[in-house]
Amino acid sequence: MRGWMLAAGLAAGTWLAATSAHAAEPKFTPGPCAGDYSGVGNKIQCGTLVVDETRGGPSTRRVAIPVTIVKASAPKAGLPPVVYLHGGPGGGVVENVARSLRGPARELVAVDQDWIYFDQRGGGVASPILDCGGVALNDAGPLNDAAAQQLIACAQRLKDSGVDLSQYNAEEVVKDIQDLRKTLGLKQIDLFGVSYGTRIALAVVKHDPSGVRAVVLDSPWTPEAKWAEGGPEMVSDAVKVIFKRCAEDAACNAKYPHPGADLDALATKLLSGPQTIGGKVYAADDLGGFLMDAAYSGPDARALPATVAKFAAGDMTALAAQMADRSGYNEAQHLTHLCKEEFPFESEAAMRKGAQRDPVSRLLEASMGRYFAVCKAYDVGAPDPVEAQPVSGPIPTLFLAAEIDPGCPPAVARAAVGRFPKGQLSIIPNTTHGVSRGSACARKMIRGFLADPSAPIDQSCLHPEHDKFVFDLE
Length: 474
Description:
It is built from 20 helices and 13 strands. The chain has about 475 residues and is of the alpha/beta class. Helix 2 links the parallel strand 4 (about 80-85) and strand 5 (about 115-120).
Protein backbone atom coordinates (compact mmCIF):
# COMPACT_ATOMS: atom_id res chain seq x y z
CA MET A 1 0.00 0.00 0.00
CA ARG A 2 2.63 2.49 1.09
CA GLY A 3 4.66 1.79 -2.03
CA TRP A 4 1.66 2.69 -4.20
CA MET A 5 1.28 5.93 -2.28
CA LEU A 6 4.88 6.92 -2.94
CA ALA A 7 4.65 6.01 -6.61
CA ALA A 8 1.46 8.02 -7.03
CA GLY A 9 2.97 11.00 -5.24
CA LEU A 10 6.09 10.93 -7.40
CA ALA A 11 4.04 10.62 -10.55
CA ALA A 12 1.88 13.54 -9.52
CA GLY A 13 4.94 15.58 -8.58
CA THR A 14 6.49 14.98 -12.01
CA TRP A 15 3.29 16.07 -13.71
CA LEU A 16 3.07 19.16 -11.54
CA ALA A 17 6.61 20.23 -12.32
CA ALA A 18 6.16 19.68 -16.03
CA THR A 19 3.10 21.93 -16.22
CA SER A 20 3.99 24.52 -13.61
CA ALA A 21 3.99 27.38 -16.10
CA HIS A 22 0.21 27.25 -16.63
CA ALA A 23 -2.89 26.63 -14.61
CA ALA A 24 -4.71 23.61 -15.92
CA GLU A 25 -8.25 22.35 -16.16
CA PRO A 26 -9.15 19.51 -13.80
CA LYS A 27 -8.17 16.19 -15.30
CA PHE A 28 -8.90 12.57 -14.42
CA THR A 29 -6.32 10.05 -15.54
CA PRO A 30 -6.88 6.27 -15.20
CA GLY A 31 -4.16 4.50 -13.23
CA PRO A 32 -3.31 1.71 -10.79
CA CYS A 33 -5.41 0.86 -7.75
CA ALA A 34 -4.38 0.94 -4.12
CA GLY A 35 -4.99 -2.44 -2.51
CA ASP A 36 -5.40 -6.08 -3.39
CA TYR A 37 -8.80 -6.76 -4.97
CA SER A 38 -8.37 -10.50 -5.36
CA GLY A 39 -11.58 -12.27 -4.46
CA VAL A 40 -13.70 -9.15 -5.00
CA GLY A 41 -16.40 -9.81 -7.58
CA ASN A 42 -16.96 -6.22 -8.69
CA LYS A 43 -15.03 -4.59 -11.50
CA ILE A 44 -12.68 -1.93 -10.12
CA GLN A 45 -11.45 1.17 -11.94
CA CYS A 46 -8.93 3.60 -10.48
CA GLY A 47 -7.14 6.79 -11.35
CA THR A 48 -6.14 10.25 -10.20
CA LEU A 49 -7.95 13.57 -10.33
CA VAL A 50 -5.53 16.49 -10.63
CA VAL A 51 -6.77 19.98 -9.80
CA ASP A 52 -5.30 23.35 -8.85
CA GLU A 53 -4.41 23.70 -5.19
CA THR A 54 -5.62 27.32 -5.36
CA ARG A 55 -8.36 27.93 -7.87
CA GLY A 56 -8.30 31.38 -9.40
CA GLY A 57 -5.09 32.42 -7.64
CA PRO A 58 -1.49 32.91 -8.72
CA SER A 59 -0.25 29.55 -7.38
CA THR A 60 0.48 26.85 -9.94
CA ARG A 61 0.66 24.01 -7.43
CA ARG A 62 -1.54 20.99 -8.14
CA VAL A 63 -3.30 18.52 -5.92
CA ALA A 64 -3.44 14.84 -6.93
CA ILE A 65 -6.50 13.02 -5.58
CA PRO A 66 -6.65 9.20 -5.84
CA VAL A 67 -9.99 7.78 -6.96
CA THR A 68 -11.42 4.25 -6.85
CA ILE A 69 -14.61 3.31 -8.71
CA VAL A 70 -16.40 0.10 -7.74
CA LYS A 71 -18.74 -0.92 -10.54
CA ALA A 72 -22.18 -2.25 -9.65
CA SER A 73 -22.57 -6.02 -9.76
CA ALA A 74 -26.18 -5.73 -10.98
CA PRO A 75 -26.59 -2.14 -12.23
CA LYS A 76 -30.09 -0.73 -12.22
CA ALA A 77 -31.02 1.72 -14.93
CA GLY A 78 -31.56 5.26 -13.75
CA LEU A 79 -29.54 5.05 -10.54
CA PRO A 80 -26.52 7.41 -10.42
CA PRO A 81 -23.19 6.54 -8.80
CA VAL A 82 -22.74 7.02 -5.07
CA VAL A 83 -19.81 9.26 -4.07
CA TYR A 84 -18.46 8.19 -0.68
CA LEU A 85 -17.13 10.90 1.64
CA HIS A 86 -14.80 9.61 4.33
CA GLY A 87 -14.57 11.01 7.82
CA GLY A 88 -11.87 12.57 9.93
CA PRO A 89 -11.12 15.20 9.03
CA GLY A 90 -7.71 13.82 8.24
CA GLY A 91 -8.80 10.34 7.23
CA GLY A 92 -8.66 8.45 3.97
CA VAL A 93 -10.46 5.64 2.22
CA VAL A 94 -8.97 4.37 -1.05
CA GLU A 95 -6.42 2.10 0.65
CA ASN A 96 -9.24 0.40 2.56
CA VAL A 97 -11.84 -0.12 -0.17
CA ALA A 98 -10.72 -3.65 -1.04
CA ARG A 99 -10.84 -4.75 2.59
CA SER A 100 -14.26 -3.20 3.16
CA LEU A 101 -15.68 -5.05 0.16
CA ARG A 102 -14.84 -8.33 1.89
CA GLY A 103 -16.83 -7.31 4.97
CA PRO A 104 -20.40 -6.21 5.70
CA ALA A 105 -20.11 -3.36 3.17
CA ARG A 106 -20.70 -5.88 0.40
CA GLU A 107 -24.40 -5.87 1.41
CA LEU A 108 -24.56 -2.17 0.56
CA VAL A 109 -21.81 -1.13 -1.79
CA ALA A 110 -22.01 -1.34 -5.58
CA VAL A 111 -24.93 -3.74 -5.80
CA ASP A 112 -27.13 -1.74 -8.19
CA GLN A 113 -25.15 1.54 -8.22
CA ASP A 114 -21.49 2.25 -8.89
CA TRP A 115 -19.67 3.62 -5.84
CA ILE A 116 -16.89 6.19 -6.15
CA TYR A 117 -14.29 6.65 -3.42
CA PHE A 118 -11.62 9.34 -3.19
CA ASP A 119 -9.19 10.65 -0.61
CA GLN A 120 -9.99 14.26 0.22
CA ARG A 121 -7.19 16.74 -0.51
CA GLY A 122 -4.45 16.53 2.09
CA GLY A 123 -5.61 13.17 3.47
CA GLY A 124 -5.32 9.47 2.74
CA VAL A 125 -2.79 8.96 -0.04
CA ALA A 126 -3.48 12.21 -1.85
CA SER A 127 -0.58 14.43 -2.88
CA PRO A 128 0.47 16.48 -1.03
CA ILE A 129 -0.31 14.69 2.22
CA LEU A 130 -0.79 16.95 5.23
CA ASP A 131 0.70 14.50 7.70
CA CYS A 132 2.78 15.28 10.78
CA GLY A 133 4.41 11.89 11.22
CA GLY A 134 2.51 10.27 14.06
CA VAL A 135 1.42 12.68 16.79
CA ALA A 136 -0.68 11.81 19.85
CA LEU A 137 -3.95 13.21 18.51
CA ASN A 138 -7.53 12.04 18.29
CA ASP A 139 -10.93 13.75 18.40
CA ALA A 140 -10.26 14.76 22.01
CA GLY A 141 -7.43 16.97 20.70
CA PRO A 142 -3.63 16.90 21.10
CA LEU A 143 -3.12 14.48 23.98
CA ASN A 144 -0.10 16.11 25.60
CA ASP A 145 1.91 19.32 25.41
CA ALA A 146 4.62 17.68 23.30
CA ALA A 147 2.00 16.70 20.70
CA ALA A 148 0.79 20.30 20.54
CA GLN A 149 4.34 21.53 19.89
CA GLN A 150 4.83 18.88 17.18
CA LEU A 151 1.65 20.01 15.44
CA ILE A 152 2.76 23.65 15.56
CA ALA A 153 6.14 22.72 14.07
CA CYS A 154 4.38 20.64 11.41
CA ALA A 155 2.37 23.64 10.26
CA GLN A 156 5.57 25.60 9.71
CA ARG A 157 7.22 22.73 7.81
CA LEU A 158 4.26 22.44 5.45
CA LYS A 159 4.16 26.18 4.91
CA ASP A 160 7.91 26.21 4.19
CA SER A 161 7.40 23.45 1.62
CA GLY A 162 4.95 25.66 -0.28
CA VAL A 163 1.64 24.11 0.83
CA ASP A 164 -1.14 26.68 1.10
CA LEU A 165 -2.97 25.53 4.23
CA SER A 166 -5.90 27.81 3.44
CA GLN A 167 -6.88 25.54 0.54
CA TYR A 168 -7.60 22.37 2.53
CA ASN A 169 -11.12 22.68 3.86
CA ALA A 170 -14.72 21.68 3.18
CA GLU A 171 -15.45 24.36 0.59
CA GLU A 172 -12.43 23.32 -1.50
CA VAL A 173 -13.41 19.63 -1.22
CA VAL A 174 -16.84 20.58 -2.57
CA LYS A 175 -15.13 21.98 -5.67
CA ASP A 176 -13.08 18.78 -5.98
CA ILE A 177 -16.29 16.72 -5.86
CA GLN A 178 -17.85 18.78 -8.63
CA ASP A 179 -14.66 18.60 -10.70
CA LEU A 180 -14.65 14.84 -10.25
CA ARG A 181 -18.28 14.59 -11.30
CA LYS A 182 -17.64 16.65 -14.41
CA THR A 183 -14.39 14.96 -15.46
CA LEU A 184 -16.08 11.56 -15.15
CA GLY A 185 -18.99 12.83 -17.27
CA LEU A 186 -21.63 12.21 -14.61
CA LYS A 187 -24.93 14.07 -14.85
CA GLN A 188 -26.07 12.97 -11.39
CA ILE A 189 -24.55 11.57 -8.23
CA ASP A 190 -25.69 10.51 -4.79
CA LEU A 191 -23.62 11.44 -1.74
CA PHE A 192 -22.86 9.11 1.16
CA GLY A 193 -21.02 10.76 4.05
CA VAL A 194 -19.80 9.13 7.25
CA SER A 195 -18.86 11.13 10.38
CA TYR A 196 -17.02 14.29 9.23
CA GLY A 197 -17.84 13.17 5.69
CA THR A 198 -21.39 14.27 6.51
CA ARG A 199 -20.01 17.76 7.15
CA ILE A 200 -18.54 17.64 3.64
CA ALA A 201 -21.83 16.42 2.19
CA LEU A 202 -23.69 19.28 3.86
CA ALA A 203 -21.10 21.70 2.45
CA VAL A 204 -21.99 20.38 -1.00
CA VAL A 205 -25.66 21.02 -0.29
CA LYS A 206 -24.77 24.55 0.85
CA HIS A 207 -22.14 25.62 -1.68
CA ASP A 208 -22.82 23.68 -4.89
CA PRO A 209 -25.44 20.90 -5.02
CA SER A 210 -25.30 20.65 -8.82
CA GLY A 211 -26.14 17.15 -9.96
CA VAL A 212 -26.84 15.76 -6.48
CA ARG A 213 -29.93 13.53 -6.45
CA ALA A 214 -29.92 12.23 -2.84
CA VAL A 215 -27.78 12.38 0.31
CA VAL A 216 -27.12 9.82 3.06
CA LEU A 217 -25.61 11.10 6.33
CA ASP A 218 -24.25 8.34 8.56
CA SER A 219 -23.45 9.72 12.04
CA PRO A 220 -24.18 13.34 11.07
CA TRP A 221 -22.04 16.30 12.05
CA THR A 222 -23.52 19.65 11.06
CA PRO A 223 -21.89 23.09 10.61
CA GLU A 224 -23.64 24.60 13.62
CA ALA A 225 -22.58 21.78 15.97
CA LYS A 226 -19.79 22.53 18.46
CA TRP A 227 -16.71 20.28 18.45
CA ALA A 228 -14.82 21.40 21.56
CA GLU A 229 -17.50 23.48 23.25
CA GLY A 230 -19.59 20.76 24.88
CA GLY A 231 -17.22 18.06 23.62
CA PRO A 232 -16.05 16.83 27.04
CA GLU A 233 -19.66 16.42 28.14
CA MET A 234 -20.52 14.49 24.96
CA VAL A 235 -17.86 11.92 25.79
CA SER A 236 -19.10 11.66 29.37
CA ASP A 237 -22.69 11.30 28.17
CA ALA A 238 -21.77 8.45 25.81
CA VAL A 239 -19.95 6.62 28.61
CA LYS A 240 -22.95 7.10 30.90
CA VAL A 241 -25.28 5.55 28.30
CA ILE A 242 -23.02 2.50 28.06
CA PHE A 243 -22.96 2.11 31.85
CA LYS A 244 -26.75 2.59 32.01
CA ARG A 245 -27.17 -0.25 29.54
CA CYS A 246 -24.88 -2.35 31.74
CA ALA A 247 -27.04 -1.62 34.79
CA GLU A 248 -30.11 -2.72 32.83
CA ASP A 249 -28.42 -5.97 31.72
CA ALA A 250 -28.61 -8.63 34.43
CA ALA A 251 -25.36 -10.37 33.51
CA CYS A 252 -23.38 -7.15 33.08
CA ASN A 253 -24.74 -5.63 36.27
CA ALA A 254 -23.99 -8.77 38.26
CA LYS A 255 -20.39 -8.89 37.10
CA TYR A 256 -19.71 -5.13 36.95
CA PRO A 257 -22.08 -3.41 39.40
CA HIS A 258 -20.31 -0.04 39.66
CA PRO A 259 -18.31 0.85 36.49
CA GLY A 260 -19.23 4.54 36.79
CA ALA A 261 -17.86 4.82 40.32
CA ASP A 262 -14.72 2.91 39.35
CA LEU A 263 -14.12 5.18 36.36
CA ASP A 264 -14.74 8.35 38.35
CA ALA A 265 -12.26 7.19 40.99
CA LEU A 266 -9.55 6.58 38.38
CA ALA A 267 -10.32 9.87 36.62
CA THR A 268 -10.08 11.78 39.89
CA LYS A 269 -6.76 10.12 40.67
CA LEU A 270 -5.27 11.01 37.28
CA LEU A 271 -6.63 14.54 37.45
CA SER A 272 -4.54 15.04 40.58
CA GLY A 273 -1.41 14.33 38.51
CA PRO A 274 0.23 11.60 36.37
CA GLN A 275 0.30 8.19 38.02
CA THR A 276 2.73 5.28 37.64
CA ILE A 277 0.73 2.07 37.34
CA GLY A 278 2.40 -1.22 36.49
CA GLY A 279 5.63 0.58 35.69
CA LYS A 280 4.09 2.96 33.11
CA VAL A 281 3.04 6.58 33.57
CA TYR A 282 -0.54 7.56 32.73
CA ALA A 283 -2.05 11.05 32.67
CA ALA A 284 -5.58 12.42 32.63
CA ASP A 285 -5.22 13.22 28.91
CA ASP A 286 -4.47 9.55 28.22
CA LEU A 287 -7.66 8.33 29.84
CA GLY A 288 -9.73 11.06 28.20
CA GLY A 289 -8.40 10.17 24.75
CA PHE A 290 -9.03 6.49 25.45
CA LEU A 291 -12.67 7.08 26.41
CA MET A 292 -13.26 9.13 23.25
CA ASP A 293 -12.05 6.25 21.07
CA ALA A 294 -13.69 3.52 23.19
CA ALA A 295 -17.14 5.09 23.06
CA TYR A 296 -16.82 5.49 19.27
CA SER A 297 -16.02 1.81 18.74
CA GLY A 298 -18.62 -0.95 18.96
CA PRO A 299 -16.25 -3.64 20.29
CA ASP A 300 -14.57 -1.28 22.76
CA ALA A 301 -17.89 0.11 23.98
CA ARG A 302 -19.25 -3.38 24.58
CA ALA A 303 -16.12 -4.19 26.58
CA LEU A 304 -16.00 -0.90 28.51
CA PRO A 305 -17.46 -2.11 31.84
CA ALA A 306 -14.99 -5.01 31.84
CA THR A 307 -12.15 -2.70 30.82
CA VAL A 308 -12.90 -0.24 33.61
CA ALA A 309 -12.98 -3.09 36.13
CA LYS A 310 -9.51 -4.09 34.94
CA PHE A 311 -8.33 -0.50 35.31
CA ALA A 312 -9.64 -0.47 38.88
CA ALA A 313 -7.64 -3.65 39.56
CA GLY A 314 -4.45 -2.06 38.17
CA ASP A 315 -4.54 -3.75 34.75
CA MET A 316 -4.02 -0.89 32.26
CA THR A 317 -3.41 -3.10 29.21
CA ALA A 318 -6.22 -1.62 27.13
CA LEU A 319 -5.12 1.96 27.81
CA ALA A 320 -1.48 1.16 27.07
CA ALA A 321 -2.46 -0.44 23.75
CA GLN A 322 -4.55 2.56 22.73
CA MET A 323 -1.73 4.96 23.65
CA ALA A 324 0.62 3.06 21.34
CA ASP A 325 -1.68 3.60 18.35
CA ARG A 326 -3.59 6.86 18.67
CA SER A 327 -2.47 8.76 15.58
CA GLY A 328 -4.76 7.56 12.83
CA TYR A 329 -5.10 10.94 11.18
CA ASN A 330 -3.13 12.98 8.70
CA GLU A 331 -2.91 15.50 11.50
CA ALA A 332 -2.38 18.74 9.61
CA GLN A 333 -5.34 18.01 7.32
CA HIS A 334 -7.40 17.37 10.45
CA LEU A 335 -6.42 20.80 11.69
CA THR A 336 -6.81 22.77 8.47
CA HIS A 337 -10.48 21.83 8.55
CA LEU A 338 -11.13 22.31 12.25
CA CYS A 339 -9.13 25.53 12.54
CA LYS A 340 -11.17 26.99 9.67
CA GLU A 341 -14.62 25.44 10.12
CA GLU A 342 -15.05 24.73 13.82
CA PHE A 343 -12.94 26.49 16.45
CA PRO A 344 -13.25 30.09 15.17
CA PHE A 345 -16.93 29.82 16.07
CA GLU A 346 -16.44 28.25 19.51
CA SER A 347 -15.46 29.56 22.94
CA GLU A 348 -12.54 27.99 24.75
CA ALA A 349 -13.79 29.53 27.99
CA ALA A 350 -17.21 27.92 27.51
CA MET A 351 -15.56 24.59 26.78
CA ARG A 352 -13.50 24.77 29.97
CA LYS A 353 -16.51 25.79 32.05
CA GLY A 354 -18.63 22.94 30.70
CA ALA A 355 -15.84 20.44 31.21
CA GLN A 356 -16.11 20.91 34.99
CA ARG A 357 -19.36 18.95 35.06
CA ASP A 358 -17.95 15.62 36.23
CA PRO A 359 -14.65 13.71 36.51
CA VAL A 360 -14.89 12.18 33.03
CA SER A 361 -15.59 15.50 31.30
CA ARG A 362 -12.70 17.09 33.19
CA LEU A 363 -10.36 14.53 31.63
CA LEU A 364 -10.81 16.19 28.22
CA GLU A 365 -10.46 19.83 29.21
CA ALA A 366 -6.71 20.14 28.63
CA SER A 367 -6.62 18.29 25.31
CA MET A 368 -9.60 20.19 23.90
CA GLY A 369 -7.95 23.42 25.05
CA ARG A 370 -4.80 22.59 23.09
CA TYR A 371 -6.82 22.68 19.87
CA PHE A 372 -7.29 26.44 20.31
CA ALA A 373 -3.58 27.02 20.96
CA VAL A 374 -2.42 24.90 18.03
CA CYS A 375 -4.82 26.56 15.59
CA LYS A 376 -2.99 29.86 16.03
CA ALA A 377 -0.10 28.33 14.06
CA TYR A 378 -2.28 27.16 11.14
CA ASP A 379 -2.63 29.84 8.48
CA VAL A 380 -5.99 28.67 7.17
CA GLY A 381 -7.33 32.05 6.13
CA ALA A 382 -10.14 34.13 7.55
CA PRO A 383 -13.09 32.12 8.82
CA ASP A 384 -16.33 32.50 6.90
CA PRO A 385 -19.33 32.79 9.23
CA VAL A 386 -21.40 30.81 6.72
CA GLU A 387 -19.46 27.72 7.78
CA ALA A 388 -21.17 27.82 11.18
CA GLN A 389 -24.68 28.32 9.83
CA PRO A 390 -27.29 25.55 9.64
CA VAL A 391 -27.87 23.96 6.24
CA SER A 392 -31.21 23.32 4.61
CA GLY A 393 -32.19 22.17 1.19
CA PRO A 394 -34.75 20.38 -0.99
CA ILE A 395 -32.58 17.34 -1.75
CA PRO A 396 -33.89 14.08 -0.24
CA THR A 397 -31.60 13.43 2.73
CA LEU A 398 -31.42 10.46 5.10
CA PHE A 399 -30.05 11.11 8.58
CA LEU A 400 -28.84 7.98 10.41
CA ALA A 401 -27.49 8.51 13.92
CA ALA A 402 -26.13 6.11 16.53
CA GLU A 403 -27.69 6.14 19.98
CA ILE A 404 -24.21 5.98 21.53
CA ASP A 405 -21.78 8.45 19.98
CA PRO A 406 -19.27 10.70 21.80
CA GLY A 407 -18.51 12.78 18.72
CA CYS A 408 -21.71 12.93 16.64
CA PRO A 409 -24.50 12.44 19.18
CA PRO A 410 -28.07 11.85 17.96
CA ALA A 411 -29.14 15.30 19.16
CA VAL A 412 -27.18 16.79 16.26
CA ALA A 413 -29.23 14.86 13.71
CA ARG A 414 -32.51 15.54 15.49
CA ALA A 415 -31.85 19.28 15.39
CA ALA A 416 -30.97 19.27 11.68
CA VAL A 417 -33.50 17.02 9.97
CA GLY A 418 -36.40 19.46 10.42
CA ARG A 419 -34.71 21.91 8.07
CA PHE A 420 -34.91 19.42 5.20
CA PRO A 421 -38.41 19.21 3.68
CA LYS A 422 -37.45 15.83 2.22
CA GLY A 423 -35.37 14.73 5.20
CA GLN A 424 -35.82 11.47 7.08
CA LEU A 425 -34.28 10.42 10.39
CA SER A 426 -33.55 7.12 12.10
CA ILE A 427 -31.79 6.87 15.46
CA ILE A 428 -30.29 3.39 15.59
CA PRO A 429 -30.69 2.05 19.16
CA ASN A 430 -27.91 0.29 21.01
CA THR A 431 -25.25 0.99 18.42
CA THR A 432 -22.21 3.21 18.03
CA HIS A 433 -20.65 5.66 15.58
CA GLY A 434 -20.71 4.68 11.90
CA VAL A 435 -23.99 2.80 11.85
CA SER A 436 -23.63 1.51 8.29
CA ARG A 437 -20.68 -0.56 9.47
CA GLY A 438 -22.33 -1.97 12.57
CA SER A 439 -25.98 -2.40 11.60
CA ALA A 440 -27.44 -4.67 8.92
CA CYS A 441 -30.71 -2.80 9.41
CA ALA A 442 -29.05 0.54 8.67
CA ARG A 443 -27.54 -0.89 5.50
CA LYS A 444 -30.99 -2.14 4.45
CA MET A 445 -32.50 1.28 5.05
CA ILE A 446 -29.76 2.96 3.02
CA ARG A 447 -30.31 0.58 0.10
CA GLY A 448 -34.04 1.26 0.20
CA PHE A 449 -33.57 5.02 0.40
CA LEU A 450 -31.14 5.16 -2.52
CA ALA A 451 -33.46 2.99 -4.61
CA ASP A 452 -36.27 5.51 -4.04
CA PRO A 453 -35.39 8.64 -2.02
CA SER A 454 -39.02 9.79 -2.08
CA ALA A 455 -40.36 6.74 -0.22
CA PRO A 456 -40.55 6.58 3.59
CA ILE A 457 -37.75 4.43 4.99
CA ASP A 458 -38.77 1.09 6.50
CA GLN A 459 -37.47 0.98 10.09
CA SER A 460 -39.13 -2.29 11.04
CA CYS A 461 -35.79 -4.12 10.91
CA LEU A 462 -34.62 -2.22 14.01
CA HIS A 463 -36.48 -4.88 16.00
CA PRO A 464 -35.21 -7.28 17.14
CA GLU A 465 -31.72 -6.50 15.78
CA HIS A 466 -31.25 -3.45 18.01
CA ASP A 467 -33.39 -4.33 21.02
CA LYS A 468 -30.37 -4.91 23.23
CA PHE A 469 -26.81 -3.70 23.71
CA VAL A 470 -24.73 -6.89 23.85
CA PHE A 471 -21.77 -6.62 26.22
CA ASP A 472 -18.41 -8.36 26.10
CA LEU A 473 -18.09 -9.38 29.73
CA GLU A 474 -14.67 -11.01 29.65
